[in-house]
Amino acid sequence: MFILRDYQQEAVDLVMASWQENKAGRELLVLATGSGKTVIFSEIAKLLAEQGVLTLILAHRDDLLDQAIDKYKMIRPEAIVGKVKGSQCELGGEVTVASVASACKPKRLKMMQQFNYGLIVCDESHHIAASSYQTVLQAFPNAFVLMVTATPDRLDNKPIIDKPPLYIKGIIDLVKLGHLCTPRAIAIRTEVSLDEIKTTAGDFNERELSDAVDTPTRNKRIVDAYQEHAPGMPSIAFCVTVEHAESLAYTFNDHGVVAEVVTGKTSTDDRKAMYARLRSGSTRVLVSIQVLTEGFDEPCVQCVIMARPTKSRSLYVQCVGRGARLFPGKDHFLILDITDNCLKHRLTPHNLNKALNLRLKDNETIEEAEERERREAEEEREKEAQIRRLKDKRKVDLVVDLLQKFDWKKRESDGAYILEFGKGHRMALKPEQDKWNHWDVPQYSVWARLAGAADIQKWSSVNLPLVEALQFAEARVLKIQDNPKVISLYDKNAPWLKEPPTDAQRQMALWYKIEITEDMSKGELSELIGKAIEAKKQRKKEKEERKLPAWKR
């Protein structure tokens, strides 16, 4: 008899109660990678099979289908389980596992409708908004639909379900229960900038991203980081494209670390052989794109290398979750977060802290972070008791999180957005009601009041749409947080502004055809150069827009 974990049994009981209440209902389970999602829905299918209810399990990949068959057979060895994929069409068993791409075909779907499935399970259901899934679900309007996923959010903002999940158990929950390994993350800084990469369907444009990050220098940086922080660990690395994966694998091998590439075209037998070599230690790193993000179940993995920046929390969590499974001798798993420069993007790449809402420092486990925060809270209370007048005094050097979310407040009186930061500084995005562009998009100016200053300063040389104004303001806030001394570069009253222009400024003025008067100061010339740069960017933007077809403008 297979014994469920307590949380697995709790999820099963909730689903069965919901089914009893509405046999044509819908529910969503959000369960972390490694939680046993397949075991949970297999147990539900078994309980319903005992009542004569047939189950259809849908997934979009063959390895997920095979996992579902294996787990159900483990729970109910005598069961007849059919598979629908490609030329296979095994119908009539108490459970049928089906590739959604095969099941949605009209002829195949008509055959399947004859069996009147009472339960439909959608594995990795963050894909459920796709038309293929919807076609199958619409063919069984009276079935109970159970959706399971580790990541309920989608970049296209399409909802998985129109109500809260029935049950949630995340990575952090399962780490604390002892069912998953705790993560340690180390940010590996690079010199690559992501600021000029366009966004496509909510994430970085794949081709532009690959061109930006697939460089010999960055790949070597990743290999060096592996050899420094994770030498010999069985690891998986996630890349952007096949070409990127091949380049990174080549760099690993060139430096004596055996690496292999897994792609969508790698056969099942070849994959199994690669996984075996990873387990045995003859291969140290498997390099992939998104092939290993779902269905890959190899608990020996001790290190996950995020060589692929992504704005998708779903993709990030799927990737890092591959290292969380328990394994003998493995008390934690390591995440090497390859961190590129990204000040311009409003929606920035995910890291472990952002994706899981944590506050881990480099190479710190969840338990260590909680203990540190407890100590820090005690120290803070002691400090406040001793120095009540210095409430804003900082205990330790500020660690800037480039991916932090800023707490902007909207001022109802005039519609301005206000942000307080640092030691008493304030930033404001002020709507310019009389300034509109040809799309009728309201423009904003960026203002700042520095701590201790009586006046407010205008920091933007031109008015900007809200998103661009946010990017402009937050980039400056980040730089000030990283190094408070740079505030003198932005302070309109800084003493250096009255000094004569530098040689470098004069050279830039020549480049931008700016006339320098005899009494011009460094600050005045700096402002003219800033306006010239913004004007050049605007001309470039308008030039690109003119190249677009009229319907895209």
Describe the structure.
By secondary structure, this protein is α/β, with parallel strands linked by helices. The chain has four domains: 168 residues, 3-Layer(aba) Sandwich (Rossmann fold); 190 residues, Rossmann fold (3-Layer(aba) Sandwich), CATH 3.40.50.300; 88 residues, no CATH class; 57 residues. It is 37% helix and 20% strand. The strands form four sheets. An eight-stranded mixed sheet has the order 4-3-5-2-6-7-1-8. Strands 9-16-15-12-14-13 form a six-stranded parallel sheet, with helices on both faces. α1 packs across α2, α9 packs across α10 and α17 runs parallel beside α18. The longest helix is centred in the C-terminal third of the chain and has 26 residues. The N and C termini lie far apart (63 Å). 34% of the residues are buried.
| Computed Rg | 28 Å
Overall number of strands? 22
- SS summary, helix count: 18
Largest sheet: 8 strands, mixed
Using the 3D structure, state the CATH architecture of the largest domain: 3-Layer(aba) Sandwich
Q: What class, by secondary structure content?
A: alpha/beta
CATH homologous superfamily heading of the largest domain = P-loop containing nucleotide triphosphate hydrolases
Mean pLDDT, to the nearest integer, reads: 81
Across the major sheet, the strand order is 4-3-5-2-6-7-1-8
| Beta fraction | 15-25%
**What best-fitting shape do the alpha-carbon axes yield?**
elongated
